Amino acid sequence: MAITVFIRYQLDPYKRATFEEYARRWIAVIPKCGGDLIGYWMPHEGTNNIAFALISFANLAAYETYRARLRADPEGIATFKFAEEHKFILSEERTFLRKVDA
């Protein structure tokens, strides 16, 4: 059964541009490490501190393999460090979803 990870980010609203750079970095890394990146979404109107990402996987085992690859990938490591250094993510929530089929 395929799963999609829905990530909700609470951002420092004054560092949205930095988060957008962070998201762009993941666009190349996520597929390389095994994730099917659906995309990142930035605030546009209304709430100015919430962003989202959606990434799909064949199953939870594929997700776990992906997470291990991310932590070993040089670009992934650099992107995690970028987030730690700039502190633009205040919180991050992950929800695992499955598609409802007819």
- Profile the largest sheet: 4 strands, antiparallel
Strand content: 25-35%
CATH class type: Alpha Beta
Strand numbers in spatial order across the main sheet? 2-3-1-4
Helix and strand string, N-terminal first?
EHEEHHE
Percent helix among the residues? 40-55%
Whole-number tally of structural domains: 1
- Overall spatial form: globular
How many whole angstroms does the radius of gyration measure? Answer: 14 Å
How does this model look, in words?
- By secondary structure, this protein is of the alpha+beta class.
- The chain has helices at 16-32, 60-72, 74-86, and strands at residues 3-11, 36-41, 50-57, 89-97.
- It has one domain (3-92): Alpha-Beta Plaits (2-Layer Sandwich).
- It contains 3 helices and 4 strands; from the N terminus they run βαββααβ.
- It has a 4-stranded antiparallel sheet with strand order 2-3-1-4.
- The model has no long low-confidence stretch (mean pLDDT 96).
In short:
By secondary structure, the chain is an alpha+beta fold. The chain has helices at residues 16-32, 60-72, 74-86; strands at 3-11, 36-41, 50-57, 89-97. The protein has a single domain, classed as 2-Layer Sandwich (Alpha-Beta Plaits), CATH 3.30.70.100.
Question: Helices, strands, pairings?
Answer:
Blueprint: E1 3-11, H1 16-32, E2 36-41, E3 50-57, H2 60-72, H3 74-86, E4 89-97
Antiparallel strand pairs: 1-3, 1-4, 2-3
Helix pairs in contact: 1-3
